[in-house]
From TrEMBL:
The lineage of its organism: Bacteria, Bacillati, Bacillota, Bacilli, Lactobacillales. It comes from the Bacteria. InterPro entries: DltX. Keywords: Membrane, Transmembrane, Transmembrane helix. This is Teichoic acid D-Ala incorporation-associated protein DltX. The chain crosses the membrane at residues 20-38.
Amino acid sequence: MARLKVLIARPGVKFILRTIFYFLILLALVYLYSYSGINNSKFIYNEF
């Protein structure tokens, strides 16, 4: 356990882990945006 803490405390490892974490969040947001179907809805004034 102490070895893991020492490994995570290194600046290079912290940078890589944060980059992976933020990339996963970005992927989740892109997935949720595409899943919501915002671009597939009709424009409300086309029916008039």
